[in-house]
Amino acid sequence: MTIAAKERVLNINTINPLIKNVEYAVRGKLAIRAEEIRSDLEKGQGKYGFDRVVSCNIGNPQQLNQTPITFFRQVASLCDNPDLLKKENLALVSQLYPSDAITRAQTLLKSIGSVGAYSHSQGVPHIRDTVAQFIKERDGGHASDASHIFLTQGASSGVQTLLSMLTENEHSGIMIPIPQYPLYSATLALYGAVPVNYYLDETTGWSLDIAQLTESVTSARKQGTDVKALVIINPGNPTGQCLTAENLKEIITFCYEQRLVLLADEVYQTNIYEPETRPFVSFKKALMDHPSAEVREGVELVSFHSISKGMVGECGRRGGYFECVNLDSQVLDQIYKMSSVSLCPNLHGQILVDLMCNPPRVGEASYESYSNEIKTIYESLRRRSKKLEDVFNKMEGVSCQSAQGSMYLFPQVTLSQKVVDAAAKEGLAPDAYYSHAMLEATGVCVVPGSGFGQKENTWHFRSTFLPEEHLFDQFCSGIEKFHSDFLQKHV
Amino acid sequence: MTIAAKERVLNINTINPLIKNVEYAVRGKLAIRAEEIRSDLEKGQGKYGFDRVVSCNIGNPQQLNQTPITFFRQVASLCDNPDLLKKENLALVSQLYPSDAITRAQTLLKSIGSVGAYSHSQGVPHIRDTVAQFIKERDGGHASDASHIFLTQGASSGVQTLLSMLTENEHSGIMIPIPQYPLYSATLALYGAVPVNYYLDETTGWSLDIAQLTESVTSARKQGTDVKALVIINPGNPTGQCLTAENLKEIITFCYEQRLVLLADEVYQTNIYEPETRPFVSFKKALMDHPSAEVREGVELVSFHSISKGMVGECGRRGGYFECVNLDSQVLDQIYKMSSVSLCPNLHGQILVDLMCNPPRVGEASYESYSNEIKTIYESLRRRSKKLEDVFNKMEGVSCQSAQGSMYLFPQVTLSQKVVDAAAKEGLAPDAYYSHAMLEATGVCVVPGSGFGQKENTWHFRSTFLPEEHLFDQFCSGIEKFHSDFLQKHV
Lengths: 491, 491
What we know:
Two copies of one chain form a homodimer. The first copy, chain A, has helices spanning 17-21, 29-43, 70-80, 90-96, 99-112, 125-138, 154-166, 183-191, 210-222, 245-258, 283-288, 293-298, 329-341, 347-357, 367-394, 417-425, 430-442, 469-489; strands at 54-55, 149-152, 172-178, 194-199, 226-233, 261-265, 301-306, 320-325, 398-399, 408-409, 412-413, 444-445, 447-448, 461-464. Chain A is α/β, with parallel strands linked by helices and 491 residues long. The first copy, chain A, has two domains: 7-65 and 382-489, Aspartate Aminotransferase, domain 1; 118-357, Type I PLP-dependent aspartate aminotransferase-like (Major domain) (Aspartate Aminotransferase, domain 2, 3-Layer(aba) Sandwich). The first copy, chain A, has a seven-stranded mixed sheet with strand order 2-8-7-6-5-3-4, with helices on both faces. In chain A, strands 10-14-13 form a three-stranded antiparallel sheet, covered by helices on one side. In chain A, β5, α10 (245-258) and β6 (261-265) form a beta-alpha-beta unit. In chain A, α6 runs parallel beside α14 (347-357), α15 (367-394) packs parallel to α18 and α16 packs across α17. The relative contact order of chain A is 0.14. At the A-B interface, α1, α3, α4, α7 and α8 of A face α1, α3, α4, α7 and α8 of B.
């Protein structure tokens, strides 16, 4: 007799109920269906009106053939195979590797030992020094303390660590933007904390208004929520806005007045497409530049960065860091303890953090090729962002704010009552219904707006603009055709 | 005015209280002190009677200069730098790399794409197929389902995922051995689940007795604990015992009768030092060989493995997997969902899982060097294990069970009342006091038995036997001298 599922010790009724509440749309139902189609196409099965699945649901540039930075990979491969650095091989190896890649690998290995060894749980000290120096240079000379920097396996794991720390009990609340990146809502659901939503204003380019923040925290506290922290994603995900220095200053003052820890998700800090009018300013710099000493010393800030985004795009390595400013030293000890339970972040991610924060400099052998590669990727991303934005804005009933930063567009789509009814019949949100239809018609996989949160009765989807440039026109026209067919079908 | 620590929003009184309860001795106070000394020695500061710190607190072989497996590193470095696989470079590259390393890298990259791209959240399908094939071969032909295998960032993260799933509420209990690897107690503390202790019997080589398991589960249930799962570490950590097939069968029957999910930590499965009398048998094989079909289909088993241990020792890459057997399909969906929130395990860890599970075969270019490297490391580990065991057993008041497996010895030390009193004065457990004294006298860092749990009023410490063989005699005599001095000082 086979044991029926309901009789299992661990089943859907006995599992940790918080886990059941977790939703993560970026890799949800639609992404699973996309994988099925991809597998069908590989096997030559199924009938589809397209020959490939295009994954625009996730910022995964190298999956869509973005070329990795040559210097980074050269150094990483030398660290992986230190036999190449042996004297007897150097003549051959010098024909394959530039001199600065060899020197950098030697320097890294001197401080790391072996990439196969656990490092310090907080990350290799030498690499944390590199990060501190990077932050100092980025922020106009404000010092950064390497002992307050933690290397992580991607920004996500750092965010999870901090949210876990902040969850004192079931009344603990964390302010998150709507729309938001669902890592936040998923993690809060897992820890049983209260998401305290604040809305970004689509009509003014997804701007962030202090009045809206104040209203949100006040109302949550009135309802008994112990609001502890504010999450800001800048540049925005999924919304792409890039905040001004003035806005950052207001936000910091708000955190001081409301006694909120500031969690700054700054993983898109180099994905800036309007650098003259909207340059990236870090919250660390804005804090250090704040006119009030009480604010500068009072606001607890944790800033997250990653090797997965920007022009680096090394998602698969899982690397990142967070910097803590004004955190209680006992809290830092607890963060260290929790890092030590997971032993250490993987060394390949750590190495890439070092390289991202300290790339080839003027005069070094790889400088020119490095700069060209970065520039090529950057300009292409900017071109594609503008092109896709135009496509969306020309589509009937669609409006799309421009991406000042990040890797995404988040257009609003007007959907008819017929769509709403058809979606309800299938138990889907209207935007999920629309996105499923897009996948089945074009092979393009996006994420429905309901996965990020949106103003009631508005519908959106998030799409990356990462498909390769030589396929981009075809990609755009596929979406245009789908949209117009979809409208006709649902008049 | 500087804001005092007690005024911080996030401080030791407002932090998640479960985090405060977490203890992780492997990287606790003693390890932090060892880091201080190491840093002093590097800077030429401080006065110590030794010139290096020897980290025996953690199974981190490559930190102590264990050589990585050449073939593994060759393939990994080619995957990292795919330019080396370009036609124009192959002539040069063939002088540096054997043909099978090149072929393997090509195969892996074909299925992975780029190591810089997020993979399937469960791990690259091709690599999961490799794992399934490995399990099948290891377990005498019993099939393994790749769709029930999850690649992870080291075994630890897999264990944490499962313990999180199993924690339905604060009454949920998980059976763990005493002594245990503190990942388990730390994780249960973090999730607020109840550790249900069962004792291993030191007098019979840390054997595992069903009567003891039964007593433990019965008593916990009487006290209202909802005992859900049994953790077995085999080979044992810190205890080194290797269970017989007969014992495994009894344990499985026990889980069936008591309705317990079986979590099998089998990361030391190739660290087997008495293979004739105590070969490693996996729980998966024991389950599939169980005479009762109801048991075979009824017992829910999750087995964990890692690239960090064995002769591979690639700790710093953070790679591993777990295989689920008889798990409810809805539970598998939830595991997948939680994996997707962390996006994917790092690709360098995944690649090493592939290589560990499918090493060079007879007739392939790297087979001979691979086998020799594995054999050399294995025999050296076995020699060192026996040598250190002998040293411990010759020390006054010390008795040490032999390591049938794993990387550790866990000797019992008789400590005088004078030690107990001196330790109490410093607020330390007697074994922590002893271990601190050892570190200060010799530079050898071990872990006090109280970090793993031990029978009341017995004192132990855990030491790896990983110091390099040419330094091993010196390492041993340092400990002997310390111990004899310590006894004299505390008569």
